[in-house]
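#onboarding

Welcome to the new folks! Below is a worked example of what a typical request in this channel looks like: someone posts a single protein sequence, and someone else replies with the predicted structure as tokens. Don't worry about understanding the tokens yet, we'll cover that in week two.

Example request:
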Amino acid sequence: MNDASFTIRPGKARPPGAGEADASFAVLPWRAWDSPDARAGWDALAARAGTPNPFFEPWYLLPGLARFDPQERIHIAALMRGDAPQALLPLQRARRYGQHPLPHLAVWLHANAFLGAPLVAQGAEEAFWEALLDWADRNAGLAAFLHAAALPLETALAEALLAVGARQRRQIVLVHREERAMLASPLGPSAYLEHALPGKKRKELRRQQARLAEQGTLAALRCADGEGIALWIEEFLALEARGWKGSAGSALACAGETAGLFRESMTAAAERGCLERLSLELDGEPIAMLATLIAPPGAFSYKTAFDERFARFSPGVLLQLENLALLERAGVRWADSCAVPDHPMIDSLWRERRAIGRFSIAIGGPARRALFRRIVSFELSRNPQGLK
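Example response:
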């Protein structure tokens, strides 16, 4: 991807920190944002974002880019006003679309980033999409279209995208839709649990908790600061690696890149006060652990692990019962499970749902848009169930 930028009004756009007052849109190598001044502006944007997304905040996105894109193929697109970013997202030129060799522009995500919502200051959603699509039209290169994955649908961000498309008569197609578990209720933890689970299931969980407590001293520990974070990280990595993910080679500890990302990002999150650590311990040893990222007004269940030697006591579920305290946490109105649809455990406990979608967007001139119409027609004909 070539470095490219332009101003929305005449003038020359510059990287973050260049001190210009005009609104501008720049697409630059991601390392241009890896400086104290750029991070400070990025942090301020995250605090103003209408749709929070911790996976695109600097403390999480930059460590991922450093590990998964050392060649700097990924760029960061930003809508700027003076030195202050109004919107930001990671952008790539992808060579394949699913199994097909189909070049396109795409919002960049890695396997441990569970939301693709750009960080956009509240109220700037339409200005951001207009600037991004204008840039994509001018800089399409070989790309047949622009693809935005893991976008939350019932948000001002998604509504603004569709509004801009309608106004510009630009084809914007929802090519996949899914729902994942969400926690959002005015009820307190006890009332919510009574509402969510039948009495027989609640009785069984109480029995399992009592039997587990017979194995030793059982305690639930919650921490929202950086104290003891290094030990907690290593305990989590070891616990996850001992389970089925370790056997399958998908545990964080199975690769240096993912282990390093977890260590660096969780340390940074704890120091910033945006990580809630929850552990279920037996005789002082963790048997279930959960990392939740806090991005007001939301929370995001990031990673969880449990000791499979105690599976008959359902320690992961018992930990989630403790996690219902999120319902009473100040500044949090909802929690995204970040789980796959129809997850066998969390879907039965968290009763609300968050709709997530993938959009493909027409860019460029008439010939490219004609090709795009054929591409999405073919995709939708192959997967109509994806929109239900």
